What we know:
The chain has a four-stranded mixed beta sheet with strand order 1-2-4-7, with no helix packed on it. The N and C termini lie far apart (79 Å). It is 16% helix and 33% strand. The radius of gyration is 21 Å and the shape is globular. The protein has a single domain (34-147), classed as Cupredoxins -  blue copper proteins (Immunoglobulin-like, Sandwich). It is an alpha/beta fold. It has one helix spanning 7-30; strands at 47-48, 54-60, 70-73, 76-84, 91-93, 108-111, 116-123, 127-132, 142-147. Strand 1 and strand 2 (54-60) form a beta hairpin. The chain has one helix and nine strands; from the N terminus they run αβββββββββ. The chain binds copper (II) ion (CU). Copper (II) ion is lined by residues 60, 64, 91, 133, 135-136, 141.
Amino acid sequence: MKVLVPRHRCVALALTATAVLVASLSGCGASPEPQEPDRGNAAGDVTVGPDGVQAMTLVSSDDYRFVPAAFTVLPGQVRITLDNLAVQLTHSLAFPPGPNPSDIAESVPVVAPSESDTIEFSISTPGEYAFICSFHEALGHTGVMTVAA
Ligand SMILES: [Cu+2]
């Protein structure tokens, strides 16, 4: 004996599964996990080399996040490397002028998938410095560098 399943029920189930998948995917990109601006973080620690430069590596992948999205340095020389581990997405890093305590002109204009680029600058004014990926700012690809007093 053959059991007939009404076709419209199958379609409804498929649509529900798709909706759940889309919701979870967009959830990943839209709400990055909060990152503590704690220098003791295991991932993405600020290290100070023999030259006294505070070095930080930020990672971006095929998502719209900086990992970590927040970190803290002291006034002085800062070196930031943006490591793009993505297969498809191109990223950038810039401190947009305006809201930040002082302007940081250095930027990574573009970093292709599986490439990295480094900037170095001197910072003296304490406060919170917002930075963005110019390509994905609207998708939440942003971060904050705190310069401690
Ligand atoms: Cu980006």
